[in-house]
Amino acid sequence: xxxxKKILSSVAVAATMMASTAQAEDMRIALVVKAxxxxxxxxxxxxxxxxxxxxxxxxIIYTGPxxxxxxxxxxxxxxxxxxxxxxxxxxxxxxxxxxxxLKKAMQRGITVISWDSGVAPEGRQMHLNPSSNALIGxxxxxxxxxxLPDGGxxxxxxxxxxxxxQNIWIDEMNKVMGDYPGIEVVTTVYGDDLADKSYxxxxxxxQSYPDLDAIIAPTSVGIVAAAQAVADAGKVGQINVxxxxxxxxxxxxxxxxxxxxxxxxxPIDLGYSAAMIAHALATEAATAEPGAAIPMGRMGSVTxxxxxxxxxADPFVYDSSNIEQFKSIF
Amino acid sequence: MSSTxxxxxxxxxxxxxxxxxxxxxxxxxxxIGIFIANSLASPYFLNAxxxxxxxxxxxxxxxxxxxxxxLIVAGEIDLSVASIIALASTAMGAAAQVDASTLTLVLVxxxxxxACGAFNAVLVCGMGLPSIVVTIGTMSLFRGISYIILGxxxxxxxxxSFAYFGxxxxxxxxxxxxxxxxxxxxxxxxxxxKTNFGRAVYAIGNNATGALFSGIRVNRVKSILFLxxxxxxxxxxxxxxSRLGSTRPSIGLGMELEVVTMxxxxxxxxxxxxxxxxxVVIAAFVMGLVTFGLGLLNVPGIVMSIFIGALLxxxxxxxxxxxxxxx
Lengths: 330, 327
Hints:
The complex is a heterodimer. Chain A is about 40% helix and about 20% strand. By secondary structure, chain A is an alpha/beta fold. Chain A has 2 domains: about 25-130 and about 265-315, Response regulator (Rossmann fold); about 135-265, Response regulator (Rossmann fold). In chain A, helix 8 (about 220-230) links the parallel strand 8 (about 210-215) and strand 9. In chain B, a hairpin with a 2-residue loop joins strand 1 (about 170) and strand 2. Chain B is globular. Chains A and B meet through helix 1 and helix 3 of A and helix 1, helix 2, helix 11, helix 13 and helix 14 of B.
């Protein structure tokens, strides 16, 4: 039976090797993500570790399933409940399916918050949005206006005409146009979040408006296509492409100068804030209730609305000074 | 038994029986080893409620694995089981939207499962198509229908009493799902090991043509097995939907491979002809204990799947190596 002994001992050894060096007296905050191995979430984990280092007595458990399923996250939540962690901060794969598991966690005295991708209100104490519609609407016009001190013409290249998010952001942008005198939005065109259609729409804009100074694309597909169209037309330096995009996809446009800057949430700040909030709620330094302001360390504080959700901050601006650092992250 | 009696073997191949015996012993030893290792590695492991939570990691998969074991023993396979869950769950969700009662919901889930199984059976047994190809096709088909119906939406609003199947407890920490798992294990154990039907399943897996000429209605037996697998997917859909309290088209994504892994780990020959239900039951515990134990240690899921893969290869390779060393 020596084989059996070998198996037994190797299993035991493997299990012991994997035993974490958890210290019982530390507060343990679990950062549960949609799936492991995604740059955005790895960056969020980095932010959470930064918060833990700042707070001192906190251990971050960064975990999640291998694929983005609710079932996988429930298994993770069950094992976190079993370990009796102090707080769970989760970016959910499904707003509803996780509710029973997270309710159970809360019944056992665990602080539960969601961040990035939310959970239905009954399954969490609060939700942290990376930003808010109003902040995004303001940011996209500000990005264009910052490079047009003497005013100018800008055009919007959106996703589809029925895209809920983009329409809300453009509405919010129009509300604050009074703060940017001299900036004129000449038109809004729709690229349907298709690279080739967005590219053609951007070409059309350049032909229809020869004096165009900037294109705002509040969509990660449109912004890349518009930057490409501007570069291909040889109008780099003349037309600035900005909006919302991913650093990994926009690095080329920043390098070529077709885009001076763009914005999107910063995952590091998001992970940092989620950990800070989880700590504040778990230590009862703050209570999650409508109207409450919950401290988030260096990120200031978040004010909760009627559904106990709040916005972290303005979208984070990426330009030539920081694109190198972020392009490998997400 | 006197020497004049004609010896009728209990198993078709006697050495195979030996191997199977050692397989289950080996697997049981692995299960116990993992249990001990887990208890030593994590202070949270030996807790009745935590162990009860851990059973949810495998009960639904194991229910399908029992029927799948019979199907694989008979030399066929069904890769559409997880997609049947999605379709059955979507149908239950749609029924829940029109205020169907809990009983109706369960019946809807089971009937859809059965219907999907029947569809597979017609294609495989009726038209003589290879089951692996057919069920890869229906895997996309069934889940595709769910995606068309639901898109990025979800069905919610299941009646409160419906939650019992996936969240209820029969007695103390013993969940309804675990009781169902145990009952089904006994039923399938009896079907495979104690009935003529079970003997026919083995006969077909070893030599389908031979079985046919021995008077076994091969296609009928296989059809019943596809129906059973569909039905069990329906049962799993009821449990999983009840546990999640909502339906999305991605429900149970990738579960078919975990079910097949469980069956193969349980000692069922992937080529058909041999395997036992007790083996599958132990394999279910092994997989549940491994994922839960590693989860308690916060081992990342990626490492966990490496561990399951290594376990699968190890458990399959070891008896062969063992035989070589001894022989």
